[in-house]
Amino acid sequence: MKVLLKENMSNHTSFRIGGPADVYVIPANEFELVDLMRFLRSKGIKYYIIGKGTNLLVSDKGVRGCVINILDKMSKINVIGNKVSVEAGALMVQIADECCNNNLTGFEPLCGIPGTIGGAISMNAGAYDKEISSLVLSVDVIDENSKIKTLYKDELDFSYRHSIIEDMGYVVTKVRLQLREGDGEEIRKKMSRFTALRTIKQPLEYPSAGSVFKRPENAFASQLIQESNLQGESVGGAEVSSKHAGFIVNTGNATAADVYKLIEKIQSRILTYYNINLEPEIKLWGKF
Ligand SMILES: Cc1cc2nc3c(=O)[nH]c(=O)nc-3n(C[C@H](O)[C@H](O)[C@H](O)COP(=O)(O)OP(=O)(O)OC[C@H]3O[C@@H](n4cnc5c(N)ncnc54)[C@H](O)[C@@H]3O)c2cc1C
To answer: Which of 92, 149, 249, 280 is the most exposed place for a label (fewest CB within 10 A)?
Structure first.
């Protein structure tokens, strides 16, 4: 398997931020991944799983231990009837495309999520009132004993931006989805509409990690941030997007420390104004 030392994580995150990982490994397949997990666990080495890095803020000091890349070598998609079987590194956009090419409907609202299916399952990603969990039949994971096992939907404990994967430290290797028969042309049109909505509403011209905060109960994080006059607020090169208040963007030279300070500033103001604790949706890796 490919092993890189002191690999800069800014090369692997959509924020374009992050210091070096001690070791960055790209397993060639699921079997190498299992072997690697066994080895790291037996030696007590800390590890992190990365898909496309679109939901991550990695510290400027980087991460100690091993980052394991799932994206590059494990991304096959296989369609059988109305069922789609995908490896964890397949991108959501590729799956959406494959579904459309096979006249399968159901995936369209999720087509613009820029990450992998493994990342999406881990946090039950969703968009436009649809969560990935609604399409899941089963998921193959590497469990705590470094064995591959199949978990069915009701064993995955899905809820808003949550699944059992993170709680248990499982690694997703394969996902089986159930779609419905549809019309290819209609599906393509729907996908174009969802993509257009994103282009209008999201600051896609800047590096970011999407919405920074989870939706608090009975409120919307972006609305609270907007109403607290935080749009345009910045720390160093990190700025609350003026296009979508839920996003923090990297305007060019932001550090992880800049983004982190801005997150704290937003949390503090929302707590003062509304007595609401905004919880980050993005994952923080390393020391801040
Ligand atoms: C412009 C933009 C728009 C976005 N829009 C949306 C949106 O509409 N809805 C939404 O939900 N999210 C959105 N996101 C966030 C992000 O794309 C999703 O959370 C996506 O599912 C993350 O996938 P990833 O492969 O990039 O995961 P990463 O960022 O690489 O990792 C995120 C987490 O998942 C874990 N993980 C990744 N792969 C695996 C695996 N195989 N097994 C176990 N754990 C794994 C990681 O360890 C980490 O904890 C957006 C992000 C951006 C930049």
So the answer is: 149
